[in-house]
Amino acid sequence: FDTGDRNNAGGSCRSCGMDLIDWPAVRVRGLADVEMKFNFFDKEWIRHFFLHVPITSRIEAYAKKHGCDGLAQVTENQLEQPKMLRFMPARDYNQTAMLDGTIVHWGRHATACCCRACMKYWHDIPLDHELIREDIEYFKQLVIRYVQFRMPDLEECRKEPATRNILNRVARAN
Q1: Residues 6+ apart with CB under 8 A from 155
Q2: What separation in angstroms does the CA of 3 have from each of 7, 11, 14, 40, 71?
Q3: Residue 83: pLDDT above 80?
Q4: Using the 8-state DSSP alphabet, how is residue 131 labeled?
Q5: pTM exceeds cut of 0.85
Q6: CA 112: distance to chain centroid?
Q7: Cβ distance 42 to 150 under 8 Å?
Q8: Least confident among 113-122, 134-143, 161-170
Q9: Cα(131)–Cα(35) distance, rounded to whole angstroms?
Q10: What pLDDT is recorded for position 89?
């Protein structure tokens, strides 16, 4: 999103001005290098927060109740809402619950698909572009990867064991 601050254009650090993100790499819509994406997400305060906030018993119970397939469906349903499909300035920036939300909401914040402004900033999806099936599927898969990283013991999420240790490597890199 455009903060209007030319000193921090392109996502440079607000404190030191350094470019910490390889924007062309992070904006590729694919999961081939999801570890790299999560490492970049971890460099921004709000994404870092949701990558590391302790999983509460409420969040864990919700995730166990729905399982990975159910969480994927919840994510898809949220992304298909008109306020996500199209940019609506009056609704953007505040349509995704924060700490009082679910693991899906946390994952959407951690992977920058919480609002259209974050989708533009991190994933280069223009505000005037209506989300299409491929966009929704990509974001849904990012959120499910987040769930797998944060809750590797969630039964239905054990399908891709190669991705289970990524968050540990992200944490060690900091």
Answers
A1: 64, 67
A2: 10, 10, 12, 19, 32
A3: yes
A4: P
A5: no
A6: 4
A7: no
A8: 161-170
A9: 24
A10: 80
